[in-house]
Amino acid sequence: MALSPTKRNQWAADSAPLAVIILTLVFTYKRYRFTNLSYFVMFVFFCLHTYAAHYTYEGTPFDHWLKSSFHTKRSYYDRVVHLFFGLLCSIPFLEILKCKAKLRGFWSYFLTVVAVLGFSAAFEILEMLAALAAGKGGEAKFVGMQGDIFDTQKDMALGLLGGAATMGIAAWINRRKKKSV
C-alpha cells in the first residue's frame, strides 16, 4: 500500500503509528505471544487502517460507494474503522489484562472497554497535534471533521460502542461456558 498512495505525507503520518505497533509486536514476541485470534483481529484492523492510509480516509473506493449508495456528502469510512477498532482490538486488550494483570470477571471486561476508549482518545489527540503541527489548513488535512463539530466525540463513541459490544459478547460466552461445566 506504500506504492503510489493518494497523498504520500498523509500516508506516512497515518502509517507511522501502525509501523511502531507492528515493530513492538515483533520485538516483544518472545516475551509475550498473543493468541491466534488476537493476531488475526489485529491483522484485520491493520488492513482496514492501511487501506484508508493508502487512499486517505475520505477517498477510499469503499467510501465512494457509500456516498453514491446512500447519497451522503460526508465520508463515513473513518467511522467504520473507529467502530472496528473497538470491535476487534478489544480482544487483544482483554487478553493482556487477563494474562499480565491477572484480572478476571467484570473488571477485565470493564477495563478493556476503558482501554479502547483511552486509545481512541489518544488517536484523536494525535490527530489534533498533527493538525496543529501542519499549521494553517492542517485541520482539513489531518482531523477530517468534514463540517461535523462532534466528529471527534462520535469517533470515540464508536470505538467505545465496539469495545462494549465485544466485551458484552465475551462476558456472555464466558458465562455460558461456566454454566455448562
TrEMBL record:
InterPro entries: YjdF (IPR058534), YjdF-like (IPR014509). The keyword Chaperone does not apply. The chain crosses the membrane at residues 12-29, 36-56, 76-97, 109-135, 155-173. Keywords: Membrane, Transmembrane, Transmembrane helix. Signal peptide: none annotated. This is DUF2238 domain-containing protein. It comes from Cohnella faecalis.
